[in-house]
Write a structure and sequence with these properties.
Layout lengths: L1 E9 L8 H14 L16 E4 L7 E11 L5 H11 L6 E6 L11 E9 L3 H13 L4 E6 L2 E6 L4 E7 L11 E9 L7 H12 L8 E11 L4 E3 L3 H6 L23
């Protein structure tokens, strides 16, 4: 049995698709591409697809991951191209490697997020970010199944900063861009929790909802502060690296990604 790991995106309007919507689209793509899928046993067999840490509905992403099991060996890049051609534009299959190491989910320990705050002066955001970073704890609340839950949003944030926004045309509203690196902890701290924290420490309240995009996710390197590519160990373990799928070990924002 061969296992293939894939990276896919949620772009444009497709950011509003739910995880279940993506699953249905992907399973249709598997059938259209005639992928020799392995199936589970039991009365209701289903394709062996493992999803890892899907982004919330309404957020864009350049770094979603899944793993499939095949009954026959296939070239990962050829398979990627077939699946990508069968998916809606915006749900793009952008990378594929053969799984040669265990524990993909264990290598997804942090995410890099970009938050576009339209109608907000960047200087106001810098002041709020400084207050957030200086705080030892920032308590926020979130509605949960068992009622309102209070937790610390500060401890999970490894980096929070304001980055340069696109040059605005005359007459456009101001815009601030936040870059956020957050560790995957329990309870999970999401970008909207950090926005709630900025409101708590500095009364920052954007007039419109933030446009949120996950730029990368992978293993967080405490020494360098970077989020590394979770597929890199599989590439490095391959007997020969295929030029089409070779990539850098550090997960950086793809060209043109973010600032949706």
């Amino acid at each position: 049995m061969q296992r293939i790991r894939l990276r896919y995106t949620k772009r444009g309007r497709l950011r509003f698709t739910s995880h279940r919507d993506f699953q249905r689209a992907f399973e249709r793509a598997l059938r259209r591409s005639e992928v020799p899928m392995a199936y589970s046993a039991g009365f209701t067999p289903h394709p062996k697809v493992s999803y890892a840490n899907a982004a919330p509905t309404g957020t864009g992403s350049e770094a979603e991951f899944l793993e499939i099991a095949l009954t026959e060996a296939r070239d990962p890049e050829v398979l990627r191209g077939l699946l990508d051609a069968s998916m809606p534009v915006g749900l793009d299959i952008v990378d594929a490697v053969e799984a040669r190491t265990p524990g993909l989910a264990d290598r997804l320990t942090a995410s890099v997020w970009e938050l576009r705050l339209d109608g907000v002066d960047p200087e106001d955001v810098r002041t709020a970010v400084a207050a957030f970073n200086d705080a030892e704890t920032v308590e926020v609340q979130r509605k949960a199944k068992n009622g309102i839950r209070t937790f610390d949003a500060r401890a999970a944030v490894a980096d929070l900063r304001v980055v340069d926004a696109p040059v605005d045309r005359p007459g456009e509203r101001p815009c601030a861009i936040l870059r956020l690196v957050v560790r995957h902890v329990t309870p999970a701290v999401r970008p909207d929790d950090v926005l709630s924290g900025l409101r708590a420490v500095a009364d920052l309240a954007p007039p419109v909802p933030a446009a949120v995009t996950r730029l990368a996710q992978g293993l967080f390197d405490e020494e360098s502060g970077t989020v590394t590519d979770p597929l890199a160990p599989d590439r490095e373990a391959a007997p020969t690296a295929h030029p089409a799928v070779a990539g850098a070990a550090v997960a950086t924002a793809p060209e043109g990604a973010g600032s949706a």
